[in-house]
Amino acid sequence: MAEATTIEGDQVDERGGQPGEKRPRHSIGSLLRSTEIDGRFLGMVVALLVVWVGFHFMSGGTFLTARNLWNLSVQTSAVAIMATGMVMIIVSRNIDLSVGSMLATLGMAMALLQAEIIPKWLGFDHWATWLIALLAGIVLGALLGGFQGFVVAYAGVPSFIVTLGGLLAWRGVAWWMASGRTIAPMDSTFQLLGGGSRGRIGGTASWLVGIVACIGFVAALIFGRRRRQKFGFRLRPRWAEITIGTIGCAVVLGAVGVINSYYMPESLARQYATQHGIEWPEGGLRISLGIANPVLIAIGVALVVTFIATRLSFGRYIFAIGGNPEAAELAGIKTRWTIVKSFALMGMLVAVAAAVQIARLNAAVSGLGQTTELYVIAAAVIGGTSLTGGIGTVPGAVLGALVMQSLQSGMVLMGVDAPLQDIVVGVVLVAAVAVDSLYLRRMQT
Amino acid sequence: MTQETTDRVPLVEMRDIRVAFGGVHAVDGVTVDLFPGEVVALVGGNGAGKTTLIKTLSGAHRADSGEIFIDGEQVNIYTPRDAKALGVETLYQTLALADNVDAPANMFLGREIKTRWGTLNDTAMEDATRKVMGRLNPTFVNFKSPVNSLSGGQRQSVAIARAVHFNARILIMDEPSAALGPAETAQVAKLIMQLKSEGIGIFLISHDIHDVFDQADRIAVMLQGKLVGTVRKNDVTMDEVLAMIIIGKLPTEVTESELEDLRG
């Protein structure tokens, strides 16, 4: 045994005690523990709320408004989508520096497809154009990502180097694909992926999404409890389950409520009224925009990747490789193939993010996504992903993306100069990781 | 306890195994065998090649040459998966645990129990782990924490549980008691006896000559990559085995004065 930490544990063992047993702590701590909520995640939520409230006061009450939060949700989605995949990459002790450049390559590919190639045989604005372009982009993303993963896993080149090469090469490819031209406009259906005034689902559907999410959440709690009951395992106290369920539903419905209280700007609402033959009422027409499509996509992606990370053996292998690559190999895991798959997944997520970006811009340029890789990595790391591997969560990374975006948009609202914005984001990144590693060290002793 | 080994087909036979690292012959033409229900101890000083030899059987390392027979049939073991498919389970000296995941995840790593939808069935895996642990180490209670928060003894229990849970026919134990206190060491010894009585063949690597004499039926001694010889425990004394380990001479070759020197 090489680990020095095990010695004390053994002594406890010999005295007949049970080192695994939890020492009694203060009541709040034990209350939290019986709800089995991750302390780091809770800390991040609190940090986010502090950032929000802080900006709200410093920006003269403009931050916590429906409009700003709606915009914040849309702006966060692309980075959040990619951060979920970056968690898997970093957990397996790798890194992907190429996501920004790959975003440009894949965005350019999808733009060229729908603006120049597909119209040649289907005509403009064919109903299937958006789907073909999106699926082709995702497949291409899997191939490009998988290729990088292949070089990492089978040629043994460190992922830092492979994706550093990718960072340069894919940027060049993106330029070369259209000789540096801007490709526009996007297919009219494809544009809906990016949000904007049309790319959202409306108030009623948003409430429906919220309610479905609540039902799903409660069902998951009940289902999990039943399964544990079946095997006779220790259960969370009933009050804890009910509290978690209530808080979860309240957060979801509250978020939908906030989003839905952002109404169409007057000019759009007037347009809507004339189109639908509604008479313009005295106090103006209040039509909820509802959840934006990119936000729905990001939520969907986060759910899918969380499922992959926690419920599938592929996800378990990623974590095992990050914890101890040799042990994973000895356990009979195909570690190399698992790494290839993780990079392919990353590529697919980059394609989804690229689709959102070019749809929102309604154009693709070869400079798309410059320095995005840094924000994606920062989001994952602020979200508690450890660069030494083995530790990280998808919801954490989404929160991390939200923190990063909140900082930026808050400083914009306050009118902070761009250079100072960069300084603040940089300092926050380092401080967040410092606090987190302090917390982790305290938990281990 | 000891078997008549002449007319039976060995469970495992490793013939003329060679492994070289660069120019160094870590294992140089070693031949050993193992019968069902038998414990063969592999002993030797540091760097004698015991672990390397055994890695060729567990699939962790490919032999440069040599043949492996299981039940008299030649097999190819290239990866740990191949070994496990043949019923060879290994308890590594390093334990080979993924420190960041919990005990059930480690126990079933690479062989997860799935639900009918193909997702991980964590509750079933936890249940199975609780059952195995109830037998091996009833004080074990941490089924939800990452194994790096466990004590050395508990981590060892997880590694042992993994090695014995999957109906191994051949068990390789590399220093199974290295991290353990006296009580747990006794527990491992008891476990070895129990597995033996179930007809499992065990290769035991150990530095502790007393453990070896307590548990092994035969003792294979290695020195500098070569096999000095394999002897029956009942035919030799501890001093004679020490002579094999240190000066590489068989009990028939060693002189009384050399044994005196070793004792001195």
Strand order of the largest sheet of chain B: 6-7-8-3-9-10
* Binned strand content of chain B: 15-25%
Let me know the number of strands of chain A: 0
Low-confidence stretches of chain B: 1-5
Polypeptide structure, described:
The complex is a heterodimer of chains A (about 450) and B (about 260). Chain A has about 450 residues and is mainly alpha-helical. Chain A has two domains: about 40-50 and about 60-200 and about 290-445, ABC transporter involved in vitamin B12 uptake, BtuC (Orthogonal Bundle); about 200-290, no CATH class. Helix content of chain A is about 70%, strand content about 0%. In chain A, helix 5 packs antiparallel against helix 6 (about 130-155), helix 6 (about 130-155) runs antiparallel to helix 14 (about 335-360) and helix 8 runs antiparallel to helix 9. The two termini of chain A are about 20 Å apart. The model of chain A is unreliable at about 1-25 (pLDDT under 50). Chain B is α/β, with parallel strands linked by helices and about 260 residues long. Chain B contains nine helices and ten strands. In chain B, the strands form two sheets. In chain B, strands 6-7-8-3-9-10 form a six-stranded mixed sheet, sandwiched between helices. A four-stranded antiparallel sheet of chain B has the order 2-1-4-5, covered by helices on one side. At the A-B interface, helix 1, helix 8, helix 11, helix 12 and helix 13 of A face helix 2, helix 4, helix 5 and helix 6 of B.
